[in-house]
Amino acid sequence: MRVCLIAGNWKMNTTAAEAERLVLEMLDRLDRIEGVEKVLCPPFLSLVGIGMMLENSSIKLGAQNMYFESKGAYTGEISPLMLRELCEFVILGHSERRWYFGETDEIINKKVMAALANKLKPILCVGERLEENEAGKTEDVINRQVRGALNGIEPDRDLVIAYEPVWAIGTGKAASGKQAAATIGFIRDVVGKLWNRSMAQDLRILYGGSVTSANVAEFISLPEIDGALVGGASLKADEFVGIVEKTAEMKARRK
Fold first, then answer.
1. Which domains does the chain have, with CATH numbers?
2. Which of 137, 138, 162, 180 has the fewest Cβ atoms nearer than 10 Å?
3. Residue among 20, 37, 94, 245 flagged as catalytic
4. What's the whole-number average pLDDT of the chain?
5. CA-angle at 21, arms to 19 and 25, nearest 5°
């Protein structure tokens, strides 16, 4: 059975001091929850401090982005060589990177390759915009994004995919469990054709988009969905702990 994963994407929020206070609020409670992989993805400036706080705990650390080159004249960028000493996961292809910063499928593909080559575990984000969803183009968009991101990449179980419909991110309007599961099933089919059916079945695919402790059970109860990439709710200690607790409960029921 695939191990459920709950990752908190803090985005451009928290100073270093605020980040450490947030971790202190939930560290002990999160650490006691078993059967769920837990990942915190703070801003770059907090990776070192939070990494020290998470030592000897069951909580993993992730970055929110990275560049695909190892080093060079890329002012302001962070390389996989820098990250691999600090964290285990890295979020790539988030819709905010695609739409605000112009990241293409080709760029995201290079980042996924670089992450895997440096033993980082990519959380690859894919998802359609509202107008694409309403036009019935969800599968076309997802197919293009998955194939583009994985072009030339050998099957790798360290990869995680997160389906994040852009229209649900930060809007309070989550997809229904049925909608999310159907699209995640489609993603698994695409990966199966790119790689093989066995690898596709082993791959963890998360849902992301206005996930809360009140609605996470709807997603985790469905066998296609292996966890969640959580945005705003991950900045509230009680809410994020509640999401992980509900996930552990639902996972136990699914056995």
1. 4-254 (3.20.20.70)
2. 137
3. 94
4. 96
5. 115
